[in-house]
Amino acid sequence: MNFKLSYIPKRSEKPRNQGLTMMMDKGLSLRQTEDFIEASGHLSDVIKFGFGTALVTQRLEDKIKLYQSAGIRPYFGGTLFEAFYARGKFNEFRRLISKYNLDLAEISDGSIIIPHDEKCELIRKLSNDCTVMSEVGSKDSGILISPAKWIRMMQSELEAGSWKVIAEGREAGNVGVFRPNGTAHTLLINRIIAKIKPSDILWEAPQKNQQVWFIKLFGAEVNLGNIAPNDVIPLECLRLGLRGDTFFEFLPKKYEERLKQINEEEEHIDQES
Q1: Does 210 reside within a domain?
Q2: Cystine design at 120: which of 9, 160, 174, 227 (Cβ 3.0–4.6 Å)?
């Protein structure tokens, strides 16, 4: 913080276990990576190389080292894992993680079908090498998963060794825990958090209205992902009540009531004039 301001919610210090911000890197250049770290590295916890971009990104190893030197944990997107797995190359994927000295990996089945018992076994195996996050939910909007199944899968994957379970939302925020128009599946999410600790879940929430919704539900320390590079600082301002959408979330009620009273008095004056 550059200066003090009262009634700013407490944020965990990095490295942290909650209040995570996951930025989605879809192909930043090395220079853009340096600029991102200078501007927003202190607010970013993990960086996902989106979908299969790691295969075609230039100077990938240099980018990984830059992120790691800034105290940020990079990892390959779950779609890349699925591309290796679909080709029968899980062990090659493990070696790839080791080659690039990554301490974080994602296992997902959003594009392909993996029997859930088998997915949990993959989580157990990969957990011997590094920290694992696993994603729950399909990228296909036509595949609907019942709340009970979401809960069972999340519980099983956490028990298998996942550090966090990622609630699918895609980069567009229109599948998984969201409706096609981007609004939250409120009933589904409420059913999930009745059984799964919110601190164990990272919600993919690329859209501003989705970020606001989760912050209002869980507070500043909610785990949010698929954040665009230029949205990391705006998201932190949402977390801290420094944007209009969350302005009154962390102020005492008396301030909101006083401002409401002032507005009413001003409206009365305007009407009289």
Answers
A1: yes
A2: 160
Q: What is the pLDDT of residues 96-135, one digit of tens each?
A: 999 999 999 999 998 899 999 999 999 999 999 999 999 9
Please enumerate in sequence order all residues whose Cβ is within 8 A of that of 209, keeping only pairs 6 or more positions apart, or say none. Answer: 182, 183
Q: Count the neighbouring beta carbons within 10 Å of the beta carbon of residue 150.
A: 24
Structure tokens at 216: 């209002």
Q: Is residue 238 part of a domain?
A: yes
Domain membership of residue 150 as a residue range: 21-242
- Tell me the β-bridge partners of 24: 48
Q: What are residue 47's DSSP bridge partners? A: 23, 74
Tens digit of each residue's pLDDT (9 = 90 or more) over 215-272 = 999 999 999 999 999 999 999 999 999 999 999 999 988 877 777 777 776 766 666 6
- Domains identified in the chain, total number: 1
7: left (phi over 0), alpha (psi -120 to 50) or beta: left
Q: What are phi and psi of 201, to 5 degrees?
A: -115, 135
Contact 57, 32 (CB under 8 A): no
Domain presence at residue 273:
no
CATH code for position 129: 3.20.20.70
